Input
Amino acid sequence: MGEVRVGLVQMSSTDEPAQNLKKAIDGMEDAAKKGAQIVCLGELFRTRYFCQAEDPALFDLAEPIPGPTTEAVGAVARRNGVVVIASIFERRAAGLYHNSTAVIDADGSLLGLYRKMHIPHDPLYYEKYYFTPGDSAPGESGFVSFSTPHARIGTLICWDQWYPEAARITALKGAEILFYPTAIGWHHREKAQHGVSQHDAWETMQRAHAIANGVFVAAVNRVGTEGGIEFWGSSFVADPFGKVLARASSSREETLLAACDLSRIEEARRNWPFLRDRRTDAYGTITSRYLGE
Output
């Protein structure tokens, strides 16, 4: 267990996918130059956050995996010897679309992908119109982890970050670092009254995942105002004790770097042996929708 240097590319996006891809590539190159070994991009970084409206024409933004984005990102990964996590609007088949992350290995090859399991449908976040939830094979969950040259990692996406089950299962599959590509922000009318508490809840929830599972958590958000949403940035990395190791600004594009000492996982789990003391024999009812009737 050694030190792994993580880079998060916090950026805004425009209406031009090619311009956004170039900005992301510049961010990946910058992170690699600063020593990052694993680089994570934000949720759906190639486009503006298009889920603010239900428009069938926007399905044209989707692409296959492998496809143009994985090819471009793979070239950067290979050139710099870094692992890259890229969030993509995936066209799996005609009429079947996912919000996915592609994990690109340090040699530029596609290591695997994760398809977002929890799909929100709230004002200005009309994701159920566009995305099919990730698959669950018989006897398995749709949550996965990936073995990279630097660490075993898990990738979850935005709305997934509110679900302890998602973090737990991914950690139980061996993930040492949980990455959360994210697009979260304030509705303009809500910021003054609820802005601080919403942001605090978002960060607290993910730091709790780090503590409860004894893992590192890295969340990368976008910045800027798009339509009715002001994205709050504040990308961060937390260690297995929930301590924030690095945090980006709330409004600037930047490349955030954090050193993750994987020996902290062993230390945390020895002091707080939550995995040891789990009552796996008593949790069967967790798969019920509700038990309060």
Q: What stands out?
A: The chain has one domain: 3-287. The first strand starts at residue 3 and ends at 10. The longest helix spans residues 191-213.
